[in-house]
TrEMBL record:
Organism of provenance: Mycena venus
Pfam families in the record: Polysacc_deac_1
Name of this protein: Carbohydrate esterase family 4 protein
Domain of life: Eukaryota
Entry's Gene Ontology cellular component terms: plasma membrane; side of membrane
Main location: membrane
Length: 261
């Protein structure tokens, strides 16, 4: 009976959908922490110039954070991980017990991609993280928070978990400044329902030093801790493992090169 219904249901789907329906389950999608009393600060779109500063500022204040990373950042030269400086930043973040997670390879809207590009966006980023750190990330945040069932199925196929947020520091909003972002934190923390999963970016700044990192972050840490929250990684606040596997980093060789997906 069950089988007959399933086959009938599948008959209405395309070939690709049948394949993914048969060979995996949809990824779990979290929009907030599950452990009450936890707050997870997340930083998207890096690693960028101030990545080590985020690691340092948080570590100095007993905070663990999570980086949702793109291996191909803006271009293949300076902002790609295949630039040795960023490999270094990632290992540094790990040494401070922060979590590394995927934000896909080049930050495309996953719901606009064909199968080939969708696979590359997920797998090339995982490969880059794995090569540089030895860790295979268990978490993925779809760029722009944009996903559909196909996307979740692809993430699930790889045993990864999808993660959004329930608070936006607004630092990627056009024209937002540190004052706007701090106000957002004031409101967000005081109205938090027992936990908080906060979206920030390493990269958005009209000027150096970056306001998210050097102005808002210390303020947010102080504020959140004054409300009694523990600042932990996404994996911790969801009670899950941060990585599908861990091991030593690989040795850089000629196969480590950047290309568009
Ligand atoms: C950011 O970190 C670097 C070391 O990675 C340090 O040299 C620099 O002074 C820091 N910037 C600020 C503004 O603290
Ligand atoms: C790496 O960082 C150093 C020091 O900031 C800089 O001089 C160098 O140009 C960077 N390397 C690349 C490939 O961007
Ligand atoms: C998700 O988006 C992709 C790309 O536009 C599309 O091919 C796919 O059919 C969509 N899946 C669902 C379940 O809507
Ligand atoms: C998938 O999309 C990419 C990028 O738009 C394109 O270059 C490629 O030809 C497409 N592949 C297929 C099989 O349609
Ligand atoms: C996903 O997890 C299952 C069960 O642990 C395992 O059999 C499978 O190989 C994993 N797949 C991937 C792509 O890691
Ligand atoms: C920040 O932006 C707001 C507008 O949203 C503006 O009123 C305020 O003056 C700005 N603050 C600073 C310090 O630039
Ligand atoms: Zn992003």
């Amino acid at each position: 009976m069950h089988t007959a219904i399933s086959l009938l249901a599948l008959a209405g789907l395309g070939y690709a959908s049948i394949l993914s329906a048969l060979d995996g389950t949809s990824a779990k999608l979290f929009t907030g922490c599950v452990t009450k009393g936890d707050a997870a600060l997340t930083f998207d779109d890096g690693p960028y110039l101030w990545n080590k500063n985020v690691s340092d500022i948080c570590a100095a204040n007993g905070a663990k954070v999570t980086f949702f990373l793109n291996a191909y950042n803006w271009d293949c030269m300076y902002q790609s991980w295949y630039n040795v400086n960023y490999t270094d930043s990632l290992l540094y973040a790990l040494s401070k017990e922060h979590q590394l997670a995927s934000h896909t390879y080049s930050h495309k809207d996953m719901t606009t991609l064909n199968q080939t590009t969708l696979d590359r966006e997920i797998d090339w980023n995982n490969l880059a993280i794995k090569r540089m750190t030895g860790c295979m990330p268990a978490f993925l945040r779809p760029p722009y928070g944009s996903y559909n069932d196909t996307v979740l199925m692809e993430i699930g196929k790889r045993n990864m978990t999808a993660c959004l947020w329930d608070f936006d520091s607004q630092d990627s909003w056009t024209g937002a400044n540190a004052t706007n972002s701090k106000k957002a934190y004031d409101q967000g923390v005081s109205s938090a329902q027992g936990s908080m999963l906060a979206l920030n970016h390493e990269t958005y700044s009209n000027s150096s030093p970056d306001f998210t990192v050097f102005d808002v972050l210390p303020y947010a840490i102080d504020l959140i801790q004054s409300y009694g929250f523990n600042l932990v990684t996404v994996a911790e606040c969801l009670g899950q493992k941060p990585y599908l596997s861990t091991g030593p980093p690989s040795k850089r060789d000629w196969t480590w090169y950047c290309q568009e997906s």
